[in-house]
Amino acid sequence: MEENTGPLKGVKILELGSLIAGPYAGAVLAQFGAEVIKIEPPKIGDPLRKWRKMDGDTSLWWYSQSRNKKSLTLNLKDADAQQVVRDLVRDADVVVENFRPGTLEKWQIGWNQLSEINPKLVMLRVSGYGQTGPSASKPGFAAIAEAIGGLRYLIGYPDRAPVRTGVSIGDTLASLYGVIGVLMALRHVSNTGKGQVVDVSLVESVLAVTESLVPEFGADGTIRERTGAKLPGIAPSNTYSTKDGKYLVLAANGDSIFQRLMEAIGRSDLANDPRFERNDGRAKASDELDEILGKWSESVTLKEALLILEAANVPGSGINSVAEVMKDPQLKARGAIEEHKLISGLELFMPAPIPKLSVTPGATRWLGPKLGQHNEEILNSLGLSLETKRKVTGEKE
């Protein structure tokens, strides 16, 4: 186990909830030194333990997302277990939760109850729609948030149904906004001694990253449509087929970059064409430019194309599967992927903590814990009797 030298060392967090949005926020905070006590239902734990590929009876995803966390099993419907939460909150800094709004209040461990115990407490509340509004009580999943927030409408080709990104991006975005909110709220605590609620909605987190979508519609009713691999209004920026049946991503929408690209593919006439001097002119002729670049890319292999682009200092890339990601020399040089060994002997690879801090970097001190692994350590610190410990952890059922 690595020594905890993270910038959040000394910050104590209770994590309530399951799956992705709340727990991923807890994961980021844990990777940078926070003590995260993850409260899980007895016997079954967080459903993520059983999601996707498994090593024995535990998900590989679990080991990554729950690294550096402590696992405490509590039946939160039990009054004694609710009291354990209140006791733990007395010296906690943050509670992270992603239950449906009103659930914690039903169990008498909502914001009003917990902040009365600890006025410095910060509570991160992640939900589908937020804590208020007509949809607040509805169940919210990332796929639905991505659809309601406007992102799903943009993904795919115009002649086909919208598609998903392949990962639960709505959950991850909400988690990251949650981490930002927690850090800002902790700064406020250090300035004023007062805690607050960080209310993060999956839908609003998705909406927040839609760039010019809202301003453009507000100005003249423009609705951005699906355009496949093309980026509307910015040219050239697209994906092209190569001679060897692979795909080349080109981002040559900078003025000088465009000129270098045209020179590199033998079209100095276009590099010096006044129509294409600025992006607005190129955007109007994006179909023409795409046809020219498509013919060029189909005349070379991906490797040949990348060598030409690199020599001309033009941004370009193939499209990596995870197999190519694992071999990428830049990612290897940066230590972007960590390797660990599970008890079973399986090699476990996972993304390293980011961002990289020069003095207090994040670290994986241990992998996701066994269910209830830290029950004794945590409950003994509260001085509970054996009978009470067995009751609240679900051992006595």
What is the secondary structure topology, with strand pairs?
Blueprint lengths: L11 E5 L4 H11 L3 E6 L13 E2 L2 E2 H6 L3 E5 L5 H11 L4 E4 L5 H4 L4 H7 L4 E6 L14 H7 L20 H24 L3 E6 H7 L4 H8 L16 E5 L5 E5 L3 H10 L3 H4 L7 H6 L1 H12 L4 H10 L4 E2 L4 H6 L1 H6 L2 E5 L5 E5 L23 H7 L4 H7 L5
Parallel strand pairs: 1-2, 1-6, 2-5, 6-7, 7-8
Antiparallel strand pairs: 3-4, 9-10, 10-11, 12-13
Helix pairs in contact: 1-7, 6-8, 7-8
Please name the CATH topology of the largest domain: Rossmann fold
Number of strands: 13
Overall domain count: 2
Main β-sheet, spatial strand arrangement: 5-2-1-6-7-8
Notes on the structure:
This protein is an alpha/beta fold and 397 residues long. The chain is 39% helix and 15% strand. It folds into 2 domains: 12-209 and 335-392, Crotonobetainyl-coa:carnitine coa-transferase, domain 1 (Rossmann fold, 3-Layer(aba) Sandwich); 237-318, 2-Layer Sandwich (formyl-coa transferase, domain 3). The chain has a 6-stranded parallel beta sheet with strand order 5-2-1-6-7-8, sandwiched between helices. The longest helix is centred in the middle third of the chain and has 24 residues, at 169-192. The protein is elongated and about 85 Å long. The two termini are 34 Å apart.
